[in-house]
């Protein structure tokens, strides 16, 4: 079975330069990856249909800025990938997009680190998207936090919400 996933050209270059990441994905996913830089596509050859779906998510996550190690979490049935398009909150204004990415990252990465720590998720902010990998409930919480920040909520309000979540989860 063969399928294709489009990812940015610069992410394909990373796989071509650092072949260890490609080999790791191929080995752990039990598949073969073909890199087509000009078409910005990764060709995936896999025997099992269910495995193919998981491998596509792994490649998609790598394309959205995660390391191969982080993307490989998606092989576990408990983990989920969520991709949020920032432009649906800011439109096509590049300056506004840059501002919103900055809000999500925070000063010296504080906001991003807080979201990751308090929701047990991994995040990647790449291009016009923020992507989240984690367990279902954790991804849901991280998505809520991201949406609130993109909608204009104060950081302190979001941090308080995360603190309350930690208390409830115990």
Chain-wise SSE layout:
Elements: E1 2-6, H1 9-17, H2 19-29, E2 31-36, E3 41-46, H3 49-63, H4 68-71, E4 79-85, H5 87-90, H6 94-105, H7 110-119, E5 122-126, E6 129-135, H8 136-150, H9 155-169
Helix pairs in contact: 1-2, 7-9, 8-9
Q: What do you see in this structure?
A:
The protein has a 3-stranded antiparallel β-sheet with strand order 1-3-2, covered by helices on one side. With 170 residues, it is of the alpha+beta class. It has helices at residues 9-17, 19-29, 49-63, 68-71, 87-90, 94-105, 110-119, 136-150, 155-169; strands spanning 2-6, 31-36, 41-46, 79-85, 122-126, 129-135. The chain has 9 helices and 6 strands, in the order E-H-H-E-E-H-H-E-H-H-H-E-E-H-H. Helix 1 (9-17) crosses helix 2, helix 7 (110-119) packs parallel to helix 9 (155-169) and helix 8 packs antiparallel against helix 9. Strand 2 (31-36) and strand 3 (41-46) form a beta hairpin. It folds into 2 domains: 2-75, Ribosomal Protein S8, Chain: A, domain 1, CATH 3.30.1370.10; 79-169, Ribosomal Protein S8, Chain: A, domain 1 (2-Layer Sandwich). The radius of gyration is 17 Å and the shape is globular.
């Amino acid at each position: 079975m063969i399928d294709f996933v489009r990812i940015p050209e610069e992410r394909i270059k990373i796989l071509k330069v650092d072949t260890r990441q490609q080999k790791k994905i191929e080995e752990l996913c039990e598949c073969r990856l073909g890199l087509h830089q000009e078409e910005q596509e990764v060709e995936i050859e896999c025997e099992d249909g269910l495995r193919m779906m998981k491998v596509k998510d792994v490649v998609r996550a790598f394309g959205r800025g995660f390391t191969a190690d982080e993307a490989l979490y998606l092989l576990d049935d408990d983990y989920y990938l969520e991709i949020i398009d920032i432009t649906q909150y800011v439109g096509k204004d590049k300056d506004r997009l840059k501002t919103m990415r900055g809000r999500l990252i925070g000063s010296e990465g504080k906001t991003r680190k807080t979201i990751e720590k308090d929701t047990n998720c991994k995040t990647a902010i790449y291009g016009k998207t923020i992507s989240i990998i984690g367990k279902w409930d954790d991804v849901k919480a991280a998505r809520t936090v991201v949406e609130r920040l993109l909608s204009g909520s104060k950081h302190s309000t979001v941090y308080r919400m995360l603190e309350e979540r930690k208390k409830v989860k115990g």
